[in-house]
Each structure stands twice: as structure tokens, then as C-alpha cells.
Design a protein that fits this description.
Layout (H helix, E strand, L loop, with lengths): L1 H8 L5 E7 L6 H15 L10 E8 L8 E3 L2 E3 L5 E3 L9 E6 L11 E8 L5 H11 L14 H17 L15
Parallel strand pairs: 1-2
Antiparallel strand pairs: 2-7, 3-4, 5-6, 6-7
Length: 180
């Protein structure tokens, strides 16, 4: 990905944000102790002195809490873009819940985000807004989705390869997102 970035932008990115999906509470230490150091080490393959600011965010769609707002003494789903980063979150973690999609029936299911590594220095408000905006960038759906677009593309690609191709996808598809 960095090689493609260099070809298109003629420089390396200063900041990299990774959204990591499919991690349970019991696997968070593995991500922090194994995956993050491996990711940071991989940057040295590009350039010995390259050290971007990095943020790694674990994304979880399936979470139990439900949030409501009270309007005229009635309980309603919160509006799109609502962030819950106090009270329901853990004080020792940099985490938040985000309501990024509508529920047509019943209560809306928030998505849980846990920033497990952060050297980028983004303010929590900026990280939350960026995450919400990334939920608008999935091209195969006209509305907002529950996870940032890179997570949805990764999920679709792994399903496509695992269920249909049974081999690595063609490199000609590397810059194409329409097939996902």
C-alpha cells in the first residue's frame, strides 16, 4: 500500500490510521503486543528513517449496549453521528461508541471503537469525526454504513476470496473497489 501511495503522491504519508475489525476483548493484548509492533516494523522496509504517526483502532459491530435519547418524554434512537465517549466507556481506555447508521425498526446498534495504539496525536473529537466520515465512503451503499469503509471493503474481499476465488485476487483489481 505504501508503494502505491508513493507512486501516486511522490512522498510517504505522515500519518496512518488502521481500522482493525474482528477482534474480541480477549485478543486486544495480542493486537497491541504482536500486530502493532509488526506494523511499525514494516515501515522500515520502505525507508530506514521513515516513522509515520500511527493510530490503530479496533472496530466492533456486535456490542450489547443500546443508547436512547428522550424527546417529549419518549425514548428515541439517537441521531446519526452521536458519539458516546463517557459513562458507558472504560476510563482506562481510549474508546467510544458511534451511532453511524439508521435503524428502520427497533433500537439502533452502535459500533464500538477502541484506539489501542496512538502516536498520531489526533484529538479524540477529530478521531471520532474522521471515523464517522469514513462510514460514508462505502460506494456500494447509498447511505451510511455501520463501520468505516476500509473495514467493509476488507470484509467483502476476504469473503470473495474465501468463498469464490480460492486463490489470491488478480493484481489488476488492486485499485478497483467496484467489485466489492
Amino acid at each position: 500500500a505504501l508503494k502505491e501511495w508513493i507512486l501516486l503522491n511522490h512522498s510517504l504519508p505522515d500519518r496512518i490510521i488502521v481500522y482493525r475489525d474482528g477482534v474480541g476483548d480477549g485478543q486486544l493484548k495480542m493486537v497491541v503486543n504482536y500486530e502493532v509492533p509488526q506494523l511499525l516494523e514494516s515501515f522500515k522496509g520502505t525507508s530506514d528513517d521513515y516513522s509515520p504517526r500511527v493510530t490503530v483502532v479496533v472496530v466492533r459491530k456486535k456490542c450489547l449496549p443500546r443508547f436512547f435519547t428522550e424527546v417529549n418524554e419518549e425514548q428515541q434512537n439517537p441521531s446519526l453521528g452521536t458519539v458516546i465517549d463517557t459513562e458507558a466507556t472504560r476510563s482506562e481506555w481510549y474508546d467510544f461508541y458511534l451511532i453511524s447508521q439508521l435503524a428502520r425498526q427497533g433500537s439502533v446498534s452502535p459500533t464500538y471503537y477502541n484506539v489501542v495504539y496512538d502516536s498520531s496525536g489526533l484529538k479524540p473529537d477529530h478521531m471520532q469525526r474522521l471515523t464517522y466520515k469514513m462510514c460514508h465512503l462505502y460506494y456500494n451503499w447509498p447511505g451510511v454504513i455501520s463501520v468505516p469503509a476500509p473495514c467493509q471493503y476488507a470484509k467483502k474481499l476476504t469473503f470473495l476470496v474465501g468463498q469464490n476465488l480460492h486463490r489470491e485476487p488478480s493484481l489488476q483489481l488492486a485499485e478497483k473497489l467496484f467489485f466489492l
